[in-house]
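Predict the structure of amidophosphoribosyltransferase.
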Amino acid sequence: MCAIVGVHGAKNASKIAYYALFAMQHRGQESTGISAANGERIHLVKDRGLVTKVFADESKFDILSGDCAIGHNRYSTAGDDSILDAQPVFARYKLGEISVAHNGNLVNKDVVRAKLIERGAIFQTDMDTENIVHLIAKSSEDKLVDRIKDMIAKLEGAYCLVIQSRSKMFVIRDRFGIRPLSLGRLKDGGYIVASETCAFDLVGATFERDVEPGEMLIFSEDSEPVSEKLFEPDYHPCAFEYIYFSRPDSIINGKNVYESRLIMGRRLAKESPADVDLVIPVPDSGVAAARGYADGLGVPFEMAIVRNHYVGRTFIEPTQNVREQKVRLKLSPIKHLIDGKRIAIIDDSLVRGTTSTQIVKMLKDAGAKEVHMRIASPEIKYPCRYGIDTPTQEELISASSTPEEIAKKIDATSLGFLSIEGLVESLGKDMNYSLVSFDGNYFAGGSKDSSSCGIS
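Done. Here is the predicted structure for amidophosphoribosyltransferase.
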């Protein structure tokens, strides 16, 4: 899961892209980058680390001049933390210069890459984004827009793309609309596209609409964006955007994330109640669901676990050892709120059981009489091939254990999950959501046995 942004027709476009990436830092913390075009050249700055670290030196923005900029925050399923894996990916080719930022996962990456290598392509990374650059460069079409269409026809899986030339910007969303992408208008008349609308709020942009599934937007100098339908849409937005990934203040596919989580919590209280004295969340993404759960039970709610916000999100860390260490570093209980009480602890999801085991122990060490773990999403039984960090089914605790068995493993008094039906009804039945992690429906290609791909 990554963040992408594109800014066109704006003064100081790279600064706007910077603030947008800052607002979406939660979507990826391994590396960040911005490329800017001034009509003649594309310049790129990228590195490992957070947005504020990579762009701490203000002089970097002198390099990134121009009224068009694209940017990327990276999270990956792979442990490699090489600077080569940072985006955007820049290249020089027959028609000039391009830069590409990608959020998603291409399930046919290995097949496409093998064919490209047969044609002489040389790869520097394992990123599927590099496939995109090579497909554009090796296309026989005369115009970039046609090369992009040629490239898109060869992709399978989930993708949101921002492609920058020296004078234009191209924005593409796959026909399933798995990953979110929205269009906004800047105060000075320029445009911005971003993975989440929270980026618009920070830069003072006005939300226009979502980029449609299967749509390409073309931004040119001194003109309105041109829309072209590349595919008939088959809308399957990812349910996990509402459960965990997106910021609570974002609007994803027309729905507020905070409100969606609140409704999930209320539904969870109906499906899996617990006789407790207090409901507490695992901060931060479990807060809204916990409030809903407490409302549903009529039980007091307290923020009884304090999160150290200077420690990153454990779910998107690339290795198990790092995840386990960061759980201990980032969460601390308020003992006087917990001691002697029966606690319901609400988390957004349960993937490997790493975080849950340590949280249960932490609460018991703080004096909790009982710890009832409740999960505001269904059991994750299948690896997602569309951009979520679940590369193998063996890593998923719910794939091999019942809730009762998991409760024993994590030493919880009880464990309950939101049902798939409860999730769908909480989000609304107006869309066919991507529920692949819960139901194993690989509608966009790939399977649970597909090889793991480096997430872009």
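The chain has two domains: 3-235, 260-429.
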